[in-house]
Predict the structure.
Amino acid sequence: MLKPADRTSYNLQCTNELRPLEADWRALEAAPQCTVHQTYDWCQGWITETGAKPLIISATYTSGPRTGETAFILPLNISRIGPFRVATYIAASFNNSNFGVFDPGFLREADADSMLEIRGQIAALPLGVDFIYLDRQPHHFRGCRHPFSYWPSLENQNHAFQVTLQGGFEAVLGRNNAKRRRKKFRTSERRLDELGGYDYVKAKSAEEAHELLNAFFRQKAARFEQQGLPDVFSDARTKAFFHRLADESLEHEDCKQLELCAIRLRERDELLCAIAALSTKGGEVICQFSSIAVGDTEYASPGELLFYLVIHDACEAGAEVFDFGIGDEQFKRSWCDVETVHYDTIIAITLLGRVGALSARAVTSLKRFIKSHPSAFRLAKAVRLRLTNG
């Protein structure tokens, strides 16, 4: 065990600007533990398109051979929830998983004592918020323990579901009843052939990407209305953010923030009956969101057919993991062999923030209880639908 005098020390700062940290940020985000949601372009895109106020916490080494180098960057933005000023991960409501931006050396050295000291330093910074809410964090990712897992946390109500792709597509099918999976694929193809046939398309130009993305927004709005849910994509600024990501993805091969693909019917005005948006970083492919058209094409299960093709492509490209993202759905479980539990970390900064932190914990615990009890979940959905429809 290191003695205090031998322990690496850090200097923490906070700023409301991203650009001064851009060079260090881009260097650190190359590490496999940095998710696409904490890359510089993802965070800068959200701040630019939505006008959110950033709060970037960073740490530099103040001892040892790396003195002056950046140890980690924590990209947050400030929002108001009721009477509380809250710092969350940038674009938190649309992030499937969060890990922060860390120097690999920091990940190796972090322990309970050093993280306790860093937590105290964060709380002493002039942050201008009542509490910090860091959600959807895995305790372990890409062979590393999340440094924030040394802090008190609570289980998030949503788990994430992944497919390991080692061994190729045949191995993936073999783990998930290959005969049944192929039969469902052929059934979907036959039903779509009865509607005039289909094409599996990927956006290769900005025009195609925007077409698919706009179709997704329309499909999702119709689905939310059908389910009695608010449309989380309705804000024009949110749409502009994803359009920006789609544009930027066409310029990169190694890290695609938003790649659009779809099942398009050859007849019936080339209807897009299923759409998915994927992010690729390192060996991981993440489904950020997906949709299917409301109507008579649903019986063909175009969404499942689309994922069959997408996962096949990910295997062919040499990806290691396909991540369906958060949310428990039967079609995800039918593919996945890994279920990841996410955790939330809350740090109260002010006296008012202590009240907010307790409230946030209570809300998360209630949501987790409801989602883990089917009867309570069905009742909650029925009440929500009744309230929405008046």
Observations:
- The chain has a mean pLDDT of 91.
